Structures are given as C-alpha cells and as structure tokens.
C-alpha cells in the first residue's frame, strides 16, 4: 500500500469513528496511523538524572521557566497524554499523512522524548523534568518511525520537513527543535530554515552521530544561523559518535539521558538527537527572560555563556563549550571591546626609604653581634667560675681519679624481674 493510500485510509477511519459517535482518545494515534504497533508505555524512573544534575535547573527557574514561549518539535509527533506533558502540547499538524491530522500523537516516542527534555513539568516523586517547564510545545509530525540521523538515505521526506518548519514559523514558534541530521543539502529544508529565520525563529539542530566517517557535512546544522548541537557523556567528554566540524556550535548531555516515552513512563536515550532539546530548552528560557532579543542574539548569548570544554573554545569538536542554562539567563553581556590592560610602570626609587632600610639592616647586624658576644662572655664566666676554685684547693696540682675495684661487685636482680612463679625445684631458693 502506498503512503498516499495509507494516509487516505487513516483519514477515513478517523472520520468514520467520529460519525459513529465515538471520539478517539485525545492523543491516541488515529486508527492505522502507525505502520507498526505503537511503542508501549514504560515504567517511570524516580531518580534525578545526571543531565538534570549537571544543568542544575533549580538554580535557573527563579529567573526563567520558559513561560510565554512556544517551541516547535518537528519530529515523530508528541504524545500529549504523557503526565508530564499534559496540558502544554498544542494540536499541531501531521505532515506525514495526507489530510488534516494533528501532530499531538506519537507512535515511537522519539518526538515525545525530545519534547519532554524541553518542557516536561516536575512531578511528585519523579526526578526527571524539562529544561523550560512552562514553555508550550507545538508538535509537527513528519514521520511515523524513529528518526535516523546516521546520514544514510533518510526515510523522511525532505518536502515534509520543509513544510513542517514553515508551519512552525507561521504558528507562533519562537524556537524550532530539529532532532535530525543527514549529509544531504535539500533545497526544501534549506529554504524553510531561511524562511523561519526571516520570522525571527531560532532553529536548533543535531549535528549527527557519524563521527567514525570523519569530518563530513551535516544538514540542517550546517546552515548559517542554525545552532548545531553535539553530544556529551556523563564524564563531560564528547560521545564517540557525535560528529565534529565547523557546524558544531555547542555541546549538551546526550548519552544515556532520561526522557519520557509515549503514554507514560521514561526511557534512556542516546545520540545528538537528545542533546539538541537541552539547548532548545535553554533557548526557550532565554527568549522568555529576554523577550526583546532577536534569534541571532539569543544564539550569541547561549554561546557566550557556555562553560569551557576539553577541546577548548570554538573548536570543531566542542564548539563554544557546554551549555549553561543559569549563565545564559542571568549574565549581563556587553558588545563593547575588552579594556586594554595598562602597562606596568615601576615607581622611581625612594632614596630616603632606602637609606632607612640600610640603617635598620646595619643596626640589626650590630645587635646580633653584640648579643653573641654577651652569650660568649657568660659562657666563659661560667667555665672560669667552676674551674678557678677547684684549682686553688689543689694548688694547681693535677688530681687523681679513683681506680675501679679489682673484682666487680655482683649486682643481684630485684625480685620484680620474676614475673611468673619460679619452678618448684627452685622455689626454695627464694
């Protein structure tokens, strides 16, 4: 069955359900919308994930939570029924199937995971939460399978991606998250990115996971003005697959990071696709805290406030460094040139002070010598005081030392040396 025919079947099934009086679940996939069986819900994870610990979001939220900012997730859809996303996911649009279907359902959890990293609300007993929990999510569905960002021939239609980006720009998105990449430079996508930028939308994209193939092209991260995001491990180093190149602008956690799954629960994910929404969430924080900044100014702020990375600043491996939400939101920046450090000028010598220092040095030496002579005199007087009286008594004749006895006197050990009773044969001797 062709994709066009399958799409028509989906729309017909939904219409039939509505006419029959049945209303599909708010975010359940329409009948036949998923090529396979939708991913099941997962168990919730209660622990605070390492990525959220690294970014220290509790420190940032008093200054910005992303309120008032709409973020588009151009992906596999977003499940609006997940407990941590409920109430913040807009209807959106499906550009994969033909017809007027929403984008607020997901078959494979990829888009739901990205959206949750951006905007999941805190929940009692759950450590995971999104970077900008008060941001709104505009779901734009362009595929019904997990996105491939390995650079191989993509299963995603570039026309659908381009339409999705334009739709997001026309429907209030201030930031667009593209957790996808490839080595093909498609005109439909490039033109759509330029269109979004003309409407002051910041586009954030994954740099890809094909580092083993060398320094290769990566689109859409390579387009001018797009923030390209690489992946970090828990050790703060670049993940093995995270691509390197001039399109790497900044790094974020992306290896074994926790995120939501469709319907409910959480799962661990890896790849630059999941590092990207961390930076997207930070962009939402900045756009909320600094609403007058343009998209390029928001990007410049995020890069300027990044923490240092092992590769040094502005490297093709780590870009500007590691994204820092708190600094991006709170620091005051200036475009003024750095002040020049004045040259060091040695003051002219103070001759009076030098003479005084020399006097004190000479005086100190004289005092030390005088004290030594006094000590020597006392020692000599002591020796003479002991020696002269004895010399007079002997009339200065030499004395004789007492000779030791011919047979040394035997010294018996004290009784206390016998710490244990003597043997029976010897007891009488004691």
TrEMBL record:
It comes from Actinophytocola gossypii. Belongs to the peptidase S8 family. This is Type VII secretion-associated serine protease mycosin. The gene is mycP. InterPro entries: Peptidase_S8/S53_dom, Peptidase_S8/S53_dom_sf, Peptidase_S8_Asp-AS, Peptidase_S8_Ser-AS, Peptidase_S8_subtilisin-like, Peptidase_S8_subtilisin-rel, T7SS_pept_S8A_mycosin. It comes from the Bacteria. NCBIfam families: T7SS_mycosin. It holds the Pfam family Peptidase_S8. GO terms for biological process: proteolysis. Keywords: Cell membrane, Hydrolase, Membrane, Protease, Serine protease, Signal, Transmembrane, Transmembrane helix. It is a single-pass membrane protein. The active site is at 75 (charge relay system), 110 (charge relay system), 273 (charge relay system). The keyword Cell membrane applies. Its main location: membrane. Residues 66-321 form the Peptidase S8/S53 domain. PROSITE patterns: SUBTILASE, SUBTILASE_ASP, SUBTILASE_SER. The chain crosses the membrane at residues 369-388. Residues 23-43, 404-430 are annotated as: Disordered. One of its GO terms (molecular function) is peptidase activity. It is found in: Cell membrane. Residues 1-27 form the signal peptide.
């Amino acid at each position: 069955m062709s994709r066009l025919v399958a799409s028509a079947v989906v729309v017909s099934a939904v219409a039939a359900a509505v006419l029959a009086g049945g209303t599909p679940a708010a975010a359940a996939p329409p009948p036949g919308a998923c090529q396979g069986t939708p991913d099941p819900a997962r168990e919730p994870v209660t622990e605070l994930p390492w990525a959220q610990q690294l970014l220290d979001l509790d420190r940032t939220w008093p200054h910005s939570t992303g309120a008032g900012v709409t973020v588009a997730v151009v992906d596999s859809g977003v499940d609006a029924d997940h407990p941590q996303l409920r109430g913040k996911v807009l209807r959106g649009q499906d550009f994969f199937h033909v017809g007027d279907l929403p984008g607020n359902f997901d078959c494979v959890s990829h888009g739901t995971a990205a959206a949750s990293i951006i905007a999941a609300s805190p929940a009692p007993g759950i450590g995971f939460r999104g970077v900008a929990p008060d941001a709104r999510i505009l779901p734009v569905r362009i595929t019904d399978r997990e996105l491939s960002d390995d650079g191989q021939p993509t299963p995603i239609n570039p026309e659908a991606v381009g339409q999705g980006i334009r739709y997001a720009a026309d429907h209030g998105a201030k930031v667009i998250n593209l957790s996808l990449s490839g080595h093909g430079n498609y005109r439909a996508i490039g033109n759509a990115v330029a269109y979004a930028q003309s409407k002051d939308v910041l586009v954030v994209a994954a740099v890809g996971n094909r580092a083993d193939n060398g320094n290769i092209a990566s689109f859409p991260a390579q387009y001018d003005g797009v923030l390209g995001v690489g992946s970090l491990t828990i050790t703060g180093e670049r993940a093995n697959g995270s691509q390197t190149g001039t399109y790497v602008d900044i790094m974020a956690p992306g290896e074994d990071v926790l995120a939501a799954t469709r319907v409910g629960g959480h799962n661990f994910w890896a790849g630059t696709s999941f590092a990207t929404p961390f930076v997207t969430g930070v962009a939402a924080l900045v756009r909320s805290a600094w609403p007058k900044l343009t998209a390029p100014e928001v990007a410049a702020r995020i890069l300027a406030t990044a923490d240092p990375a092992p590769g040094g600043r502005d490297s093709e491996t780590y870009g500007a460094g590691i994204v820092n939400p708190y600094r991006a939101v709170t620091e005051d920046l200036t475009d003024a040139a750095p002040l020049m450090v004045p040259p060091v000028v040695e003051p002219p010598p103070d001759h009076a002070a030098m003479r005084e220092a020399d006097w004190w040095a000479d005086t100190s030496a004289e005092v030390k010598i005088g004290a030594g002579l006094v000590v020597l005199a006392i020692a000599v007087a002591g020796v003479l005081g002991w020696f002269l009286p004895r010399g007079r008594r002997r009339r200065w004749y030499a004395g004789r030392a007492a000779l030791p006895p011919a047979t040394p006197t035997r010294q018996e050990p004290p009784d206390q040396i016998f710490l244990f009773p003597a043997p029976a044969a010897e007891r009488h001797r004691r």
